[in-house]
Structures are given as structure tokens and as C-alpha cells.
Amino acid sequence: MHTSMKALGLLALIAGLAWAPAQGQAGTNTITNTSTNTPTGKSTRAKARKPPADKGPAETRIERDKRLQRECRGKPNAGACEGYGG
After folding, report:
1. How far apart are CA 72 and CA 60, in angstroms?
2. pTM above the 0.70 mark?
3. How far is Cα 76 from Cα 19, in angstroms, rounded to an integer?
């Protein structure tokens, strides 16, 4: 039984080695044929645009600067008001 398993494995190995080059040759012919038929330059398919991302309730940097300038008027230059108090 053990020798028949070795023989079966050897046959599978030989069949695999014989099958691999045949697939490789068929694949290269297919690739070269399709590459000559494809147009050069930009693809004809349009790219899908991404929908604008919702940033949520957070304020922008400009909005934050304006708010801090408004809230920090006349307060000491400390904490969150550092650089905005006047």
C-alpha cells in the first residue's frame, strides 16, 4: 500500500509539471493578443467620484479662531485664550 501511494504521488507530480508549461504558454498568447487589441492612453471607463464626507458637528479651524477671538476679549492670556486675549 505504501509503494502505491508513492507511485500515485510521483504520477501527480509529473502530471503537474507537464500541465504548468502548457498553461503558461496559453496565458502568454492570450495576454499578447489582448494587449494588442486594447486602446492606448486613458481608459474609456469613467472614474466614480466619492461623495463629500460629512465632518459632523465639529467646527472648522476658522470657526474656532473666530469664536476664541470673540470669547477671549478682555480676558488674561492663559489656557484656551492664549494668543487670543487682548
Report:
1. 18
2. no
3. 82
